[in-house]
Amino acid sequence: MSPTEAAVTDALATVQDPELHQDLVTLGMVEHVRIEGDVVHVKIQLTTPACPMKAQIEGDVRAALGAVAGVRRVELEFGAEVRGTPQSALPGVKHVIAVGSGKGGVGKSTVAANLAAALALDGAVVGLLDADIYGPSQSKMFSVEGKRLMADDDKRIIPLKNHGVKLVSIANLVEDGQALTWRGPILHGTLTQLLQQTLWGDLDYLVVDLPPGTGDVQLSLSQLVTLTGMVLVTTPQDVALLDVKRAYSMARKTHVSVLGVIENMSYYELPDGTRDHIFGEGGARIFAERERLPLLGQVPITRAMRESGDAGVPLVVSHPEDASARVLRRAARALAGQISVQAMNTLPVV
Predict the structure, then answer these.
(1) pLDDT tens, 105-150?
(2) CA distances (Å), 240 to each of 41, 171, 191, 219, 227, in order?
(3) In this structure, are 163 and 20 located in the same domain?
(4) Structurally, how many domains does the chain consist of?
(5) 277 and 164, same structural domain?
(6) I need a surface site. Which of 93, 137, 249, 297 has the fewest CB within 10 A?
(7) Is residue 124 included in any domain, yes or no?
(8) Alpha-carbon separation of residue 191 from 63, 211, 221, 247 (angstroms)
(9) Contact yes or no for 298/279 (Cβ under 8 A)
(10) Environment class of residue 299 by beta-carbon count within 10 Å: exposed (0-12), middle (13-18) or buried (19+)?
(11) Which residues pair with 193 in a beta bridge?
């Protein structure tokens, strides 16, 4: 007797994504099921192109379906296209992710750089816009200092590229060390040009490194493009949390989804393996739980983090086995998963 589609679906509903901790059916990862006698054909849509959990998911699916009465063989197919609909303001760009903090000095730009590089390492096509106009740092972090942004014949900006990420920063348009004292209207015009007059091409993700605070750039960004969502970066201490709460409040007022929170500088691991929570402990977790937001990661302080930034190579590229790099890779995968689930819930049914 052939298995029923209901029995197959029920079995798939017992298999969880190891990183998102929800079942494949709820997450919308089961693209189709086809039954031919005692052979079951299933296509699973992974959350990231180079999903590191693919082997585990495959094993779990085969085990679950193998226990269904009437199943003799399981044929599995995997897809890995980043789900999303390119928007009219940025043709070819599926998702725009803002990274903000509300406060300077919490490592927001470092986190943004490493999220972009980590997404690229996982097989996505990624761009990074340094929207911190007054304090751009991404050109340093991606080792493209001193290189000038060029334009094509139609005066469209050609991004620089390093470590698998397309990059545009105001630092590559002005003289080194030049202080910018632009007011709101000029900031808005500059951001419009960097966003909409750049040859981004087809991107799965465009990561936008926001300036600290809740000012003109943040408002302009929410008006210029449809944001997939925002990642909030903070440290555990109360002073930083006060400002990230303001950033969260602004996101809600501008109807921007908050995809999660990353706590940076969570602790320093001592030689004996104990952890010194220099800036306090658990602040971001408490905030995330209260607001029902995902805590994407708690990033420790490591020497390699500082050295990689100074060297112009994102930590996830230069020191992939470093403790902070591992947390950031997991955070990027969790972020991609959040976006995939959100896209699944918003894409039109055809």
Answers:
(1) 899 999 999 999 999 999 999 999 999 888 889 999 999 998 999 9
(2) 51, 27, 26, 21, 24
(3) no
(4) 2
(5) yes
(6) 249
(7) yes
(8) 51, 12, 8, 19
(9) no
(10) buried
(11) none
